[in-house]
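Hi everyone, sorry if this is the wrong subforum. Our group has a chain we'd like a structural model of before ordering constructs, and none of us has done structure prediction before. Sequence below.
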Amino acid sequence: MKDAFFNGYTLTCKRSRFKTGAVMRLLALTYWAKDRDRETVRRSMDHSTPFGAFAQDGTLVGFLRITSDHSTVFYMADVVVAQEARGKGIGLALVQYALANP
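Answer:
Right subforum, don't worry. Here is the predicted structure as tokens:
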């Protein structure tokens, strides 16, 4: 899937862009994933499709992942946007981008 652009942010699902530490920093902002260890985060990303919003400087500011049977169902998980990027529509744009993924 091609990258998309939203108000100066790059939306992508290219695995090479995602660093475990950057994802962990965003997940630390949540009540459900703040205590996940590095190995759990890495495995969860290995077994799902990550989607992210990156600022112009390359900082990951939005994240979600989708797990699926690649046939009939999918589950969207870990949707989070960095505090400094909230209120700009990044979360909605990221969800729409992920839902457009064939």
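For your construct planning: The mean pLDDT is 95. The beta strands are 4-6, 9-12, 49-54, 60-68, 74-81.
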